[in-house]
Give the backbone structure.
Amino acid sequence: MRLLMVAPPGAGKGTQAKLLAAHYGIVHISSGEVFRREVAAGTELGRTLAGDLARGDLVADELVLEILKQPIIEAAARGGYVLDGFPRTLRQAEEAYQVARQIAGIELQAVVHLIVPRPELLRRLRARGTAQGRGDDDEIVIAHRLDVYDSETEPMLEFYAGRGLVVDVDGFQPVEAVFEEIVKKVDALREGLG
Ligand code: AP5
């Protein structure tokens, strides 16, 4: 199974991706976690990424693809993946699509779009900021991340919708209910595609 989570900050991409990885026996690849680990380790790459992450800006498309391409190819060969946070712009989606056309068996099979009202996104991110102190869960940066999602990521959904890959899921439910809805809809989509 090869899945992509697309949703705004705080919608539950990471939470659900972990559950889906365990359910389908696939690899969870979180672009944000990969980048935060580099920053925390103080690597040269981490120093390059740190400013964008702290401001809630997107990392440059070409750098993102360079970092994530190989882990995704390897995960596809090991049974599949759930991508959490990449692709995140139309350009990333188009470039990933071009790569997938050249390598058999790595293309996406479903895109999970979690829908959560903005006040709930703000509530979750503020709560996590207080509880865990993640650097970009700061009031001003949260607002910017949500704006960046609206302008850069949401338009990308059209690209996948045109390929019949998107399932819309109500993310404003308890975690377990969201998970059950995703599995039901993803399995139905896969069966429909044969
Ligand atoms: P990334 O790490 O992807 O962060 P994000 O998109 O802002 O997403 P979050 O991790 O905040 O939210 P989530 O949807 O995963 O929700 P979660 O499950 O954590 O990206 C960080 C940064 O990296 C970007 O700003 C950018 O700089 C850079 N970056 C990453 N990918 C990039 C790319 N492809 N291109 C360029 N730059 C890139 O849940 C949030 C909270 O809500 C948690 O506390 C959780 O416990 C709670 N929660 C989850 N589900 C529920 C529920 N159903 N009910 C109640 N609470 C819930």
The CA atoms of residues 9 and 109 lie 23 Å apart.
